[in-house]
């Protein structure tokens, strides 16, 4: 199944790079695509558990799903992820 998640804190290509690298490493997740302008990530997954796993991974990286609480901690994590994405 293919889905698109709208996420918070997505600011640049560095963020997109971090998200793509980290989500692509998850088992049974393919065709990861990040759209910075629309603040969304699209991917193909096999089970509902995998979808939940991606959402949890995004939140851990500092990119919670749109509509979820966007704490100061999440914002700080996203800045770190952004910087790491720019360096790699």
Mean pLDDT: 88
> Which quaternary structure do these chains form?
single chain
Gross morphology is globular
Q: How do the helices and strands follow one another from N- to C-terminus?
A: EHEEHH
Concise structural overview:
This protein has 88 residues and is α+β, with helices and mostly antiparallel strands. Helix content is 48%, strand content 20%.
Structure description:
It is a single chain. This protein has 88 residues and is α+β, with helices and mostly antiparallel strands. It is 48% helix and 20% strand. It has a three-stranded antiparallel beta sheet, covered by helices on one side. The longest helix has 16 residues, at 72-87. The chain is globular.
